[in-house]
Amino acid sequence: MDLDDVNSITVLGAGNMGHGIAEVAALAGYDVVLRDINEEFVQNGYDQIEWSLGKLAEKDQLSEEEADAAIDRVTPVVDLGEAVADADVVVEAVPEKMEIKKDVYGELEEKAPDRTVFATNTSSLSITELSEVTERPEQFCGMHFFNPPVRMPLVEVISGTHTADETMDLVDELAESMGKTPVRVRKDSPGFIVNRILVPLMNEAAWIVHDEVATVEEVDSTTKFDIGLPMGSFELADQVGIDVGYHVLEYMHEVLGDAYEPCPLLAEKVENENLGKKTGKGFYDYENGGVDVPTDAAREDVKRRLLAVMANEVAALVENDVADADAIDRAVMLGGGFPDGPAKMADDAGIETLVETLDELHEETGAERYQVVDALRELAESDEGFHGSDDEKSGTLEFDNLRVEMEGAVAHVVLDRPHRLNTISGDLMDDLSDAIDALSDDDEVRAILLTGAGDRAFSAGADVTSMAAGGADPIPAVELSRKGQKTFGKLENCDKPVVVGIDGFCLGGGMELAACADLRIATERSELGQPEHNLGLIPGWGGTVRLQRIVGTGRAKEIIFTAERYDAETMADYGFVNRVVENDELEAEAMELAQSLAGGPPIAQRYTKRAMHRGWEDTEAGLEVEAQAFGILFATDDLMEGVMAFSSDREPEFEGK
Q: What is the pLDDT of the chain when averaged over all its residues?
């Protein structure tokens, strides 16, 4: 079956995951049947879809017509035979219990057409074992969405032992058609990728506290404000439900052995039904203040221990051909919200250092979870990382937080942190600074286009979580402001034309970055603003200066003081946005403009920017630069080419000479 043959999708289970998956499929244009075991369950799921679509329309993320069309494509059904009679694909999202799922597939096999592909949304159970309940194991795979499916971009597509390549290709393409980013899991292994990293990380955090090495607050301060994860380990466990992670860990322990022995601290929480936020108490007491993670209690030994355990899990996945390091990093960033992937974090920390940490812990405790995986030890001994050695990377224009793609004479720079709405971290600033330096010195580059990865944000601003580690100390904050001012200033002062393409959020530091461009194009759905006053701050990366130059002092004060979000049309009226385009036309329109500028006269462009910049500071100085440049240009080949092209009624071909 090809993707073009898929018209009808049945989702089994109308709970949080089921109705979320059904909504995503309906928004993608598929006819969806939502099925559960009784009328109440299936109607509740349908009502949740209707409510969610209404919220999306209310926030202008889709039109009322689109919301109505999506809900019209969803049919709630109780009878299983009716639900799957015309199904091309069935996505099962029933409770995460092996026996329940097996019962469902036993009945489903009898009811579904022979052509139907089965996909289970399990987060950790064996794809192979489930597929063998059916008579079509080659048409069976995992399709693991993340909660909530409407918002989370990742789908793990998991192969069972019997899964056909054609089935994997189909489900991979199906996920993409739903606007998701599929990551293939090549081999059926408990926890797949994301949970195989997150659950042992939670377990190790619990062991650290259980063994009285550190407190809950110290561990969470380390994971949230030093490692830079969206939540502390215990904060996340409480949010998801301690029992959820614990049951996944039990399954891993059963299948993979004692390296995954659950910490008694987790078992105690589950036994006492202190399961986190949903019960009012877990590692934090939600009836008495809730989560309060200190910003200044991080510990280096805790960080090293957690990174070492994650590195060991990454090595095990790579060694067993479950996934490669790139896929693991991509999945964990998209599914777990990590600022960097665990393989990249391990490389940065030093594989040899992490192996030494594991060896010391193994010698001290004898616990199997610290037994170093062969693949990790081999990397340490060869002085390489998961992503190769430093020597292999030298001389290439590659970065961790952005991509540089050449299209003719245009360098397309993409802020590549879609899992964090392309928020600006210190590492991203370092990458951007190096990229601007390299592109400014490259004579083959005639223009720069800057956009954000994904369709949710150009950049939603500063990565507040990763930058909060300094606590209340003003000195790091001052240095952070200066670093941003210097980096963004490089872009503003680049002699080559710079175009920014804005799609989605362009807020705070993201708007300050966009202000450094020469021209700005934005989609109709974009939202722009400087929300710093809502946090008790001011724009710290040049916004107080550059914004008033572009829109005038009065408008700049309005934007900063109100801290409101403005649509693209309003910002075009204010003069900040040069052109507003339809949502699906940004890349083409922005690249067309950048290509046009790349064909312009480089020397004239350079001196135009310099004269304007000097004129902002000092009118007389700007006019002097203008006069000097005017004279210099009379001696250039570009001027002769421009005159000849004008006389011949043809397009000039400027070479910057």
A: 92
